[in-house]
Amino acid sequence: MEKKSLKSVVCGVGNTAGEPVMRSAPVHGAEFWRWGSDNLFPYALALMSRRSTTHRRIINDKADYISGKGFSFDVGQTLLGSLIDRVNGCGESLRQVINKIAFDKSLFGNAFLEVVTDTGHTFLSLYHQDATRCRMARDGRHVLLHHDWAEFSMKEAKSLPLYPAFEEQADGTLRSIIHYKDYEPMFEHYGVPPYIAGMNVSAIAYKTDRWNISRLDNSFQLSGVMMIDDAVDSEAEAAQLVRVAEERFAGRPGQVMFVIKNGSADDNSRFIPISSQNEGDWKDLHDQATGDIVVAHSWFRSLSGLDYSSGFDSERILHEYEVALNTVILAEQAEIMEPITGVMQSVLGIDTSSLQIVNRPPTRSKPIYMKVWEARKADGLDYDPEDERQQAFLSEITKYNVTKIG
Question: Are residues 60 and 189 in the same domain?
Fold first, then answer.
């Protein structure tokens, strides 16, 4: 089959920048299936990920581990190599796109990948689409893209067919979109993030952090009641006096309560502290919430940077990485790569049998004198001890992010 040239196209639709506006969405949904009761569930998930440190660290790390350190492939497949280096007109590599897909899938339980080609199948481009801007159309065969679902307008929305269907666009290209979603009973149109059972503990971790910030803002002053002995002529004057006192002395609102009482000959103004001995309870609550977040993500403490303060145990890190590799990482990689390799084969006729994601642990686990086939065996990949291409030592290839076999 004649090899086709690789072209680039303009960036895909739906790439409007900016923070989502958290407000009520239209209740109608005749054109699409709502994602959450108010159709803004992805916005809430994104906001929570920006507030909980452990939660965000796990999502970042899972995306990095799943996208790997590069690819191994047959160097004779020049078109495949070109796609790996530059997979779209924005200049992104295949790994960059996969990293965004893995991030969205870890955060939302859903991810969207736009596929672009033409009627002659002379090129292929892959674009990640922000999951917060995507909704499933009512017909079940299209995805609607919109920059702000709180102000949805069908005239401003872009419709793309679900892969493997393609539809011609105004620019003459053929476009399709792949929808990745994590299975959850009772949810047909959208996936559910794997940490769904840990959403409340993520909120707890955020609130305990905010409580500590509040204490810092108040210089760890005691809470209490300030009794002001003064005479005022009206409730408005009393409220104004309290407001001025709060602005000057209270720190964060609620740290000190001010009470005005009728004045007497002697000034009996005084501060009544409210002591609290629950600091230990708050710390225990935060530690428990952090541990529960890791469990909800089906992840591991040492891979989340939680135990570094107690010492760098490389053996534990390597052990937990091997478990994560065989229970989470390889499965997610296979799910993401299967439709991508299918698109490469169907659109450009590329043989992708040699394409593999390269996985490396966070610390060195394999000696540089180990051969490629031995390393592939250790990582759970296909290997052939008789293949001359896999007889090279790791010391010969570890300086490259992309391993080209052949």
Answer: yes
